[in-house]
Amino acid sequence: MDLSKHNCLFEAEVSEFKHEHMKAIPRPRRLDGERLSSLFRKVAGALAVVTLLTALGALSGLPLVDWPLVGVFAVMAFAAFILMVREESRDQDWDRESRLIDIELREASPQQKEWILEQYEKHYEVSRTVTSWIAQGKTIRVRDYCAIRLKVEAAEQRMHAHRVEQALRA
User: Fold this and answer.
1) Over the stretch 105-139, which tens digit does the pLDDT of each residue have?
2) Residue 149 exposed, middle or buried by CB count within 10 Å (0-12, 13-18, 19+)
């Protein structure tokens, strides 16, 4: 079990870590401080209302409104709707990744710390690494808990497979 490749962060490194990870994800596009998806939603809604009104006008026989005009507004509303959906998907990717990074950078919960303490007593590598992190003044975060858990579970699976192999040889 090798935890030396995992970097437990100092408090000052957390914002830089988040910034680096979020750079890889396309940011929500904005126009005048408002998300583009929100603007497309407003445009699509307005065009849907105009389409409905022109359709009602065409049905009632108004001379200025005809069915080709209704079709033009319907196509424009549909195009705005498609653009809105595409932009909202992009926004949701950004929001989801931001929430995941925030969760990952939270301080470990008491239950997670308790689990680490149990492993601290069982595995020398965990005790050595966690002691080093605490001595350096680092905070154990959810990402550190996940790294420790991944390494411990892999080591325990290897030990179990080794025991099974030995039992089969005997």
Assistant:
1) 999 999 999 999 998 888 888 889 999 999 999 99
2) middle
